[in-house]
Amino acid sequence: MPSRDEVLKFLSESQDPAGKREIAKHFRLRGAEKIALKALLKDMADEGLIDSAPGRAFHKMGGLPKVTVLKIIEADGRELIAIPDNWQAEGLPVPRVRLSERGRSGALAVGDRVLARTEEAGGGYRAFVMKKMHRASEQLLGVVEKGEGRKLWLKPVDKRVRRMVPISDPGNAEPGQLVLAEQHGQRDRISAKVTEVLGEPFAPRSFSLIAIHKFGIPHDFPPEAIDEAQRAAKLPLSADHREDLRHLPIVAIDPVDARDHDDAIWAVPDEDPANAGGYRAIVAIADVSYYVRPGGAIDRAARKRGNSVYFPDRVVPMLPAVLSADMCSLKAGQDRAAMVCHLVIDAHGKLKSWRFTRALVRLAANIAYEDAQAAIDGAKPHELTDTVLRPLWACWKLLFKAREAREPLDLDLPERRIVLDDAGRIVSVAVRERLDAHRLVEDFMIAANVAAAKALEAKKAPVVYRVHEPPSREKLVALKDYLETFEISFALGQVVRPATFNAILSKVRDETVKPLVMEQVLRSQTQAYYGPRNMGHFGLSLASYGHFTSPIRRYADLLLHRALVDAHGLEQPPAPKLDLPPTTGLAQQDAASLDRICEQISGFERRAMEAERETVDRYVAAFLATRVGEIHKVRITGVQNFGFFATIEEFGGDGLVPVSTLGAERFWYDEASQTLTGESSGEQYAVGQRLELRLAEADPVTGAIKFELPHGGNYMPGPPPRGKPGGGRPGGRPPIKRRGRPANIRHQSR
């Protein structure tokens, strides 16, 4: 049997994709040895040493596969720059790969996808084209800018595309407008043809429009889905086949600007002597599965979205507005269909029992988080303070006690909130306050999610789990190296639990350093996903966990509701003649293909997160655009060989300080300590360091922010160029050498 090092060496040197079969063949393994190899590869993947690529090939974790699909994004002179078509390495920047065509000169252009063999070269990657992939019709999103004379250029909104594209056919577009364009030509002769004018990029509510088009987020419902939603909204609500809970003062506690209300809660002391000190609670969730039925037009549209996408200026809902904002939204004083989780909680905050019913509810109130907190604190009394809110808070204290006992990961990182005026213009960027009211709702939802997963497991029914796996060994090694810079010890051999990270945070006495360590601990975590197999939820320290509480905005929750309908016999009588699918449970074909569905909706979730993050970045850049030239207090959040990233401490805003602006001397990058150190001066920049920087650039279109040192780089003299003592530039630095054809040589070829 080969050792781990021998397997890694083979994967790094193999010129072809290497799966289990190729590895076994190389090491001449047979019979039982192949079974042992399979276990070895699984262990190596769990330890973060290798990763699986499409086609069941393996490659070194955090790096590019030896053979992979690349997408060309830029032409640098006569050289093409590409990025991986599917980059999954969390926390690592997408590598820019220099592409070598080898006899295919001029055959490839920006936007092409190629199958290529990659190799590490000089701290980066170079790739050799094996095959050109079929090119899908792809459009470029950008802003029209006016050049010299009448020439128009397209400035892409993607930060990774650094060059502007000449416009050959502007159509009706005018300078300053946001447009969609098709790319034509090859290499240095690429041009763009405008296909659609989207409007003004700086107009209110335009930044989210950029993200919608860039990420291909479906934002218009097909007519058949809207028609079906209008018919579904007419479904009758009757207490004949539902538990009638309209007499209970159930309340929904949501953000003040909430667009939909899909959860509500209620609790009272348990009168059962066997549960002295305990509580009975209800978590009522909008019964979306009653209206959105498997196989229907709404269901197909919802699956293509996977989730609602929340931007500062708009929501792209998963369901049509007639459902998401009306019939499926739990509004006070109105009868609503609900899927209800009845919980019995003991005096220690543990769940004793649970049951699920379809019910009819009429909420007593919709209360904002801030108002609920003010009522409990006595600052702003509410009519339901004593009868509803205080019992809820008393029950929550028991749940919180159980939460503390299981010691989940305790990362309380600030969240940026974009404040807009009525016209959609940005007013401020603030940090969202974290209240006990937020924690209360969160803990009730967690309890219901656990109960839903366990209720389905008890019936041996399909479950869509919310999976959060423990950190990989590679990320733990990186965290260990980082913590050593703060003189905090972290042993790699121990069994890592959430409490392990909480203990690390408790060792940090400096409150200015604590957020930095929290952020690094967060980066060490794996990304959560949906799956039909239970791998536990590491961050919450829970063995079984599913998403049950937000079916208006998450398709995973809708699937879990349907599974509960089947497992607990909650099917409703056939719908009247409204031309709707007859059943509300989980379709057989969906139950058989949960793997594929979970993978799809996990991808849509990542898409939504990236779109939301980019839109917030654009709003922050727009807010800072009027402050270019000002000095800001920042802290360094990341260091790479090309520079370091810094965040404005007051209200966020992540920007780059390119290493080229730090001075003429060479700066060495140390990956373990995440530092850049000047070769001659010893000047050092490290993660967590606080300093003052000048805002040099804030581009709202791309969301890019750049900083510079307040007094410029150190400009230490560099070596003089040959034959010219003293050099041709200030400080004795060598002159810039331009790439490409000399200016006095005329291009005469076709």
Write up this protein:
The protein is an alpha+beta fold and 750 residues long. 27% of the residues lie in helices and 26% in strands. The strands form ten sheets. It has a five-stranded mixed β-barrel. Helix 10 crosses helix 11, helix 11 packs across helix 15 and helix 12 (473-484) packs antiparallel against helix 14 (514-524). The N and C termini lie far apart (58 Å). The model is unreliable at 715-745 (pLDDT under 50).
Summary tags:
alpha+beta; 17 helices; five-stranded mixed beta barrel; 750 residues; 27% helix; 33 strands
Question: What does this entry show, briefly?
Answer:
By secondary structure, the protein is α+β, with helices and mostly antiparallel strands.
The beta-strand count equals 33
Poorly predicted spans: 715-745
The biggest beta sheet reads: 5 strands, mixed, barrel
Structural class estimated from helices and strands: alpha+beta
- Our count of helices gives 17
- Neighbour order of strands in the largest sheet: 3-4-5-7-6
Helix content: 25-40%
**Kindly state the mean pLDDT as a whole number?**
84
Radius of gyration from CA coordinates: 29 Å
Form type: globular
